[in-house]
Task: structure prediction
Amino acid sequence: MADLVDLRSDTITRPTPAMRQAMASAEVGDDVYGEDPTVNALQAEVAGLLGHEAALFTPTGSMANQIAVQLSVPPGEELLCDADAHVVTYEIGAAAAIGGVSSRTWPACGGDIDPDLVAAMIRPDGYFAVPTRAIAVEQTHNRAGGAVIPLSTLERLRAVADAAGVALHCDGARIWHAHVADGVPLATYGRLFDTVSVCLSKGLGAPVGSLVVGSAEKIDRARWIRKRMGGGMRQAGVIAAAGLHALRHHVDRLADDHARAARLAEALAPSGIVDPKRVRTNMVPLDFATAPVDAPAFGAAARAQGVLVSVLGPRNGRLVTSLEVDDAGVDRAIGVLTGILA
Result:
């Protein structure tokens, strides 16, 4: 239907006309040889933004995460993260299956991480114990509804990692949203982590692509791991150009997505399915525990009226704003969704 409003995810964004033009005119070369100038420019720009020496372009965020994990955790050793982290929830066991990495989790708590709890979980080298080699956090946190981990918490985690001699990785697929929401410079985030992965194909609207960021030595190794995992690309400048355009034109506008998500949350708050205080970025978590319908029925009724929502279970759902949803789309969604709950 022509006036469809898609609130399922920010991964559904399509390239803008200006982004398509940038892709069409991209200068390209063979990236496996390190000779694609547009890929090289993207890698240098992202590394600079995050205050690191180097970056490597990858086809997906999952590959970027798994490269980062393998850089810090040898086979048979351990990664710590939260139970809802993307790296152990949505990457099909890749850390174990591909990297031979063991993982252990603290209870899911989104952005409300207790660094003391994490410190207590770290296992040193010892008598047949699996040693902890890295800690991973997610900024912003997907399954926690776009929660932003406070800078002070991340600084305490850095101190924990340093004291234990372990690495700290950030799954920063939506770190751009945290930067816009809290005003923390990207380089301030970047200096806290040994490795960072960032995504271009979610809120920034590029059609594909992520990067893993770290020291020059780590990224030199990362290039070998990427090739081993089948991620070596040739004339990848065509897609890297979309990423450069997104970085230069679509970061500040994330504030518009945040404002639209807040407007959705305020409109739905009287129904009891949303707590507006939880909405910090572009995600609106929905809880149907006290609603007149369950999440699947709500999703089906909304779809029938041209509004797509993400159903995450019998009582949980999610709305996500993005480049694809303007103010008129939010107005239409509010009318449909509040009508279902009336």
The radius of gyration is 20 Å. The CA atoms of residues 163 and 309 lie 44 Å apart. Residues 254-268 form the longest helix (15 residues).
